[in-house]
Write a structure and sequence with these properties.
By secondary structure, the chain is of the alpha/beta class. It has two domains: 129 residues, 3-Layer(aba) Sandwich (Rossmann fold); 38 residues, no CATH class. It has a six-stranded parallel beta sheet with strand order 3-2-1-4-5-6, with helices on both faces. Helix 4 runs parallel beside helix 5. The longest helix is centred in the last third of the chain and has 14 residues. It starts with 5 loop residues before the first strand and ends in a 26-residue tail after the last helix. One of its GO terms (molecular function) is oxidoreductase activity. Pfam families: GFO_IDH_MocA.
Length: 171
């Protein structure tokens, strides 16, 4: 790892319409222990657009090339769930670590296949709900912990957040 930073490739970083480009990428760019070195998209034109927009050095339309690039240590998969298995397994087979959005797979069988590939490759795979890191929800948790609403006995929540978070919320 160059400069002791974890070098990240993001699959699903179309700057016009992806969760990867409006949530994952801005958050990673604000964290000092990471550097985003590559983006992957369904077309080379889209990947090139993302590299220009975000100032990232490498663009790929081929997951296998991104996963095998020597300047990528970890890959974030921020695409729709039906594509998770193929993409995640390609990255794991390249020996790279993977962070993906929840759910891991469309079915239990697909999730187990991904888990088997992770165990076989020796790479680590992480799955997370992106909402847990949402600044607004963190504030609600803080208020509950401070006792603002008293003893919580049951919760039913309906809320609306911006479709795409603003990068300012990661400052």
């Amino acid at each position: 790892m160059k400069n002791n930073k974890i070098r990240v490739g993001i699959i699903g970083a179309n700057p016009d319409r992806s969760w990867g480009s409006v949530a994952h990428l801005p958050a990673l760019q604000k964290l000092p222990q990471y550097t985003v070195t590559a983006v992957g998209a369904t077309s080379q034109a889209s990947a090139d657009k993302a590299t220009k927009h975000f100032g990232i050095p490498h663009a790929f339309a081929d997951t296998f090339q991104l996963a095998n690039h020597p300047e990528v240590d970890l890959v974030t998969v921020a695409v729709k769930v039906p594509h998770h298995q193929t993409l995640i397994q390609a990255v794991l087979k390249a020996g790279k670590h993977v962070f993906s959005e929840f759910p891991l797979g469309k079915t239990t069988k697909k999730s187990k296949n991904i888990l088997h590939t992770a165990h076989s490759s020796g790479a680590r795979h992480f799955v997370r709900l992106q909402s847990r890191a949402n600044p607004e929800l963190a504030y609600v948790k803080h208020m509950i912990n401070k006792g603002y609403v008293g003893e919580v006995r049951a919760v039913h929540v309906n809320y609306s957040l911006p479709v795409y978070p603003t990068p300012l919320c990661y400052d």
